[in-house]
């Protein structure tokens, strides 16, 4: 698991429109990277909508917001369009970004051990250093808490 003060791992993932988004694009900007379990589940939908509703507030503070899950680009596009999600959603089908950020864990689901993502958010500063590494976060109300953390960076 990553912690505050660690250098944020680099990433390169396609978004819902299949454009490649790389961590290097955000040098000189604060970045909020939130990991969620799966598109179109109640908690993940609420979280993505809340981040989208606050996206302009983050932008005013010079911060970008990206959501990451193991769903593919097509599923992300459908999810975005169905719920009016404004933040960019990155597909991590190979799990490389999830692994780098330590958000995968073994969990028993219906009597079977599966590797699943834990809901987590990282606030990364302009120098690419993790200022906040939040694991096991709630789906509701979390975006507003993260917005306050970003305000405190400035």
Contiguous uncertain segments of 5+ residues: none
Number of helices: 5
In helices, the fraction of residues equals 25-40%
Major sheet size, sense and barrel closure? 5 strands, mixed
User: What structural class results from the helix and strand content?
Assistant: alpha/beta
Mean pLDDT: 95
User: What is the percentage of strand-forming residues?
Assistant: 25-35%
Task: Write the H/E string, N to C.
Answer: EEEHHEHEHEEEEH
Distance between the termini: 26 Å
Oligomer: single chain
Number of strands: 9
**How would you describe the shape?**
globular
Task: State Rg.
Answer: 14 Å
Reading side by side through the largest sheet, how are the strands ordered? 5-4-3-8-9
Could you characterize the architecture of this molecule?
This protein has 154 residues and is α/β, with parallel strands linked by helices. Helix content is 30%, strand content 30%. It contains 5 helices and 9 strands, in the order E-E-E-H-H-E-H-E-H-E-E-E-E-H. The chain has helices at residues 42-53, 55-60, 73-83, 96-100, 142-153, and strands at residues 12-14, 20-22, 30-35, 63-69, 88-91, 104-109, 112-117, 120-124, 130-135. The strands form 3 sheets. Strands 5-4-3-8-9 form a 5-stranded mixed β-sheet. Strands 1-2 form a two-stranded antiparallel sheet. Strands 6-7 form a two-stranded antiparallel sheet. It is globular and about 45 Å long. The two termini are 26 Å apart.
């Amino acid at each position: 698991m990553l912690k505050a003060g660690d250098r944020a791992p680099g990433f390169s993932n396609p978004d819902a429109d299949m454009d490649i988004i790389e961590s290097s694009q955000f040098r000189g900007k604060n970045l909020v990277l939130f990991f969620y379990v799966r598109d179109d589940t109640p908690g993940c939908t609420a979280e993505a909508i809340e981040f989208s509703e606050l996206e302009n507030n983050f932008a005013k503070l010079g911060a970008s917001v990206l959501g990451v899950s193991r769903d593919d680009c097509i599923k992300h596009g459908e999810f975005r369009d169905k719920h009016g999600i404004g933040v960019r959603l990155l597909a991590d089908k190979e799990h490389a970004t999830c692994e780098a950020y330590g958000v995968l864990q073994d969990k028993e689901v219906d009597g079977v051990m599966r590797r699943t993502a834990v809901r987590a958010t990282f606030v990364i500063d302009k120098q690419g250093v993790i200022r906040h590494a939040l694991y096991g976060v709630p789906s509701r109300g979390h975006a507003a808490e993260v917005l306050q953390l970003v305000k405190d960076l400035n």
